[in-house]
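In response to reviewer comment 3 from the previous cycle, which asked for concrete evidence that the modeling workflow produces usable outputs, we include below a single protein chain processed end to end. The sequence was submitted unchanged, and the resulting structure tokens are shown without manual editing.
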Amino acid sequence: QVQLVESGGGWVQAGGSLRLSCAASGYTYGMGWFRQVPGKEREGVAVITRDGTTNYADSVKGRFTISRDNAKNTLYLQMNSLKPEDTAMYYCAADRLRFYGLPTLSQADFPYWGQGTQVTVSS
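The workflow returned the following structure tokens.
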């Protein structure tokens, strides 16, 4: 089993930055950040394997950086140049099983989820 607890959400002006954290208990291989707004499906933002392979949604490339500290069992998402369209509930997700190739941005591949942290970007 894996438990995930997100933190670091909040309110910022457009162009500002936030750093989200996800503290995990238990072993994880793939970890990722997903976001959801009312009326829309949850979408993948960024994913990372235990080995450090990453994949990003086109909408955040060049602005967001996903990273992890395996010794601390913690996942991070550094968000820069935030836009109002980044406003969403952000969820941390994880998988225990090793896989090969590029990690996916599909929520179906991640069975463990945190409670979410709200990010609001004002214009």
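The first strand starts at residue 3 and ends at 7. We consider this sufficient to address the reviewer's concern, and the full set will be provided in the supplementary archive.
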